[in-house]
Specification:
The protein contains 12 helices and 18 strands. The protein is of the alpha/beta class. Strand 6, helix 9 and strand 7 form a beta-alpha-beta unit. Helix 10 runs parallel beside helix 11. The structure holds (3S,4R)-3-hydroxy-2-oxopiperidin-4-yl beta-D-xylopyranoside. The site of (3S,4R)-3-hydroxy-2-oxopiperidin-4-yl beta-D-xylopyranoside has 6 residues, from loops.
C-alpha cells in the first residue's frame, strides 16, 4: 500500500482510464480529438492527475501550528521528516533508538492519508557524537546496524528511503566526498543499500544529492556512473533524488530535463526531493514552472517535494524560497506550480492532438497564456476563458472570439502560440481542447 502512487500497475490503470476517456471524446465528436485533463485545485490533486505525488518536508515541532498543518494537509500527499529521521535524531546513543519524533511525523502522515519519504539512513552530516568519533570496521558495522534497525522499525510505512545522502564532492573532481564513512571503504554505499533492501524489501531505495541537477557537472556524472554501475552489478537501487536547492549561485539549469531523462534511462525513478528556489515574484514563479515542466516531461520523474511549507519554515528563510509566504498565502510560485501541473501534456491519440496550457507573464490586470500543440500540424484549439475574462491580444495563430469560447487555428507560425487575457477580477487559467482538422 505504501507504493500505490508509483506502482507500475497503478500507473498503467491511470493511463487506461484516460485513454478510455479520450476514446469517448473521439467517438462523440466524430473526429480525432483530445481534451486537456481536468484541473486539480491543489498541488496534490493536480500531481495525482499526472500520476505523480507532490510532497513537503515536515517538522514535528510545527504539527501544533494549525496554519501550517492546514496547508500541509490540503496541498501535499507525500511527507519527508525535515530532521527527525536523521541519524542523530534516531540513534542519539549507540544502539539506543529514540523513535518519538520520527513516529509523530509518520503517524500524522498516515492518519491524513499521506505517504512518507524516509530521510536519511546514511550520511556524513548530522551524525550523533558517538558516530562522529568512530572509524574503520566498528563504524561500518554501526552504520549497517543503524540502517537495519531504522529500516526495520519503519518497514512497510516508507514509500522511498534516501539510503545514502550527499556522498560526492562538489567541484570538478567527480570524486567521493571524504568522510568517516567513506574511509571505511569505497563499498560503504552499496553495503548500505543491500542492508536497506534486506530490512524493507518494499521501500524504493534512493541515492540523494545536491548539485546534481546540471547534466554537465562532474558531480552529476559521478552519481550517474554510480547508478549505472549499481544497475550493471545488481546492487539494489530504485531511484535517484535530486535535492534541487536553487538560488542565484546555483540556478535551475537549462539542461535539467536532460539530467532527469538520463537518470531515468538507467532504469531508476527520479524524485525531486528537496526543492526550494530563492527569489520572489514572477522570476521565482518562472523557475518553479521550469522545474515542474522538466519533471512532467519524463514519465519516470514520479514526484516533487518542496523543502518546507511557508517561507518562514525554510532552512533558507531569508531567501523566501517556498510556495507560501510567512502568513500562509499562496505566492506567484504556487500558482505557476499548480498551473504547470494542470497544463502538462498527455500522450496524444494517434492522429489526434494535445494542447498544453501554461501561464507565462503575469501583470496585475492581465496575463499571457502560452499554448503548445503537439501531435498534429492541422489543428483547431478551443479555448474556454474563465468568467469575466476577455481577450486583449494573440500571436502566432488566428484567434476568433473575445470572451467565453475562443477558437484558434494555425496561421503558418507553427504549433506554439499565445494570447493575452484581461483578468477582470478572475485570475484562473483558461482551459483548452485540441482537435485535428
Ligand atoms: C536541513 C534542514 O532543513 C535544517 O533544519 C537542518 O538544520 C539542516 O539540514 N540537504 C539535506 C537536508 O539532505 O537534510 C538538509 O536539511 C538540507 C540540505
Amino acid at each position: 500500500m505504501t507504493r500505490t502512487l508509483t506502482s507500475p500497475r497503478h500507473r498503467r490503470s491511470l493511463r487506461a482510464i484516460s485513454l478510455a476517456t479520450l476514446t469517448a471524446v473521439v467517438l462523440a465528436g466524430g473526429m480525432a480529438a483530445t481534451t486537456a485533463q481536468a484541473a486539480g485545485s491543489t498541488l496534490q490533486a493536480a500531481a495525482t492527475e499526472k500520476g505523480r505525488y507532490f510532497g513537503t518536508a515536515i517538522a514535528a515541532n510545527k504539527l501544533s501550528d494549525s496554519t501550517y498543518t492546514t496547508i500541509a494537509n490540503r496541498e501535499f500527499n507525500m511527507v519527508t521528516a525535515e530532521n527527525e529521521m536523521k541519524i542523530d535524531a534516531l540513534e542519539p546513543n549507540q544502539n539506543q533508538f529514540n523513535w518519538t519524533n520520527g513516529d509523530r511525523i509518520v503517524s500524522w502522515a498516515r492518519s491524513n492519508g499521506k505517504q512518507v519519504r524516509g530521510h536519511t539512513l546514511a550520511w556524513h552530516s548530522q551524525q550523533p557524537g558517538w558516530m562522529q568519533n568512530m572509524s574503520g570496521t566498528a563504524l561500518r558495522n554501526a552504520m549497517l546496524n543503524h540502517v537495519t534497525q531504522v529500516a526495520t522499525h519503519y518497514r512497510g510505512q516508507i514509500h522511498s528511503w534516501d539510503v545514502v545522502n550527499e556522498a560526492f564532492q562538489d567541484g570538478s573532481s567527480g570524486a567521493r566526498r571524504d568522510s568517516n564513512l567513506q574511509r571505511t571503504g569505497n563499498d560503504w554505499i552499496e553495503a548500505a543499500f543491500r542492508a536497506a533492501r534486506a530490512a524493507d524489501p518494499n521501500a524504493k531505495l534512493c541515492y540523494n544529492d545536491y548539485n546534481t541537477d546540471d547534466w554537465t557537472h562532474a558531480k552529476t556524472q559521478a552519481v550517474y556512473n554510480l547508478v549505472r554501475d549499481f544497475k550493471a552489478r545488481g546492487v539494489p537501487i530504485d531511484c535517484v533524488g535530486l535535492q534541487s536547492h536553487f538560488n542565484a549561485q546555483s540556478p535551475v539549469p537549462s539542461n535539467y530535463q536532460t539530467t532527469i531523462s538520463s537518470f531515468a534511462a538507467l532504469g531508476v525513478d527520479v524524485q525531486i526531493t528537496e526543492l526550494d528556489i530563492e527569489g520572489s515574484g514572477s522570476a521565482q514563479a518562472d523557475n518553479y514552472r521550469k522545474v515542474v515542466q522538466a519533471c512532467l516531461a519524463v514519465s519516470r520523474c514520479t514526484g516533487i517535494s518542496v523543502w518546507g511549507v511557508r517561507d518562514t519554515d525554510s532552512w533558507r528563510a531569508s531567501g523566501t524560497p517556498l510556495l507560501f509566504d510567512g502568513n500562509g498565502n499562496k505566492k506567484p510560485a504556487y500558482t505557476a506550480t499548480l498551473d504547470t501541473l494542470n497544463g502538462g501534456t498527455s500522450n496524444p491519440q494517434p492522429g489526434g492532438c494535445t494542447v498544453a496550457v501554461t501561464r507565462s507573464t503575469d501583470w496585475s490586470d492581465r496575463f499571457n497564456v502560452s499554448l503548445a500543440v503537439s501531435g498534429s500540424s492541422t489543428w483547431r484549439v478551443s479555448i474556454q476563458l474563465q468568467g469575466g475574462q476577455t481577450l486583449q491580444n494573440s500571436w502566432n495563430a488566428t484567434v476568433s472570439g473575445s470572451s467565453g469560447t475562443l477558437t484558434a487555428t494555425p496561421n503558418g507560425a507553427g504549433n506554439n502560440f499565445g494570447i493575452t487575457v484581461y483578468k477582470n477580477g478572475n485570475t484562473n487559467l483558461p482551459t483548452a481542447t485540441c482537435s485535428t482538422t
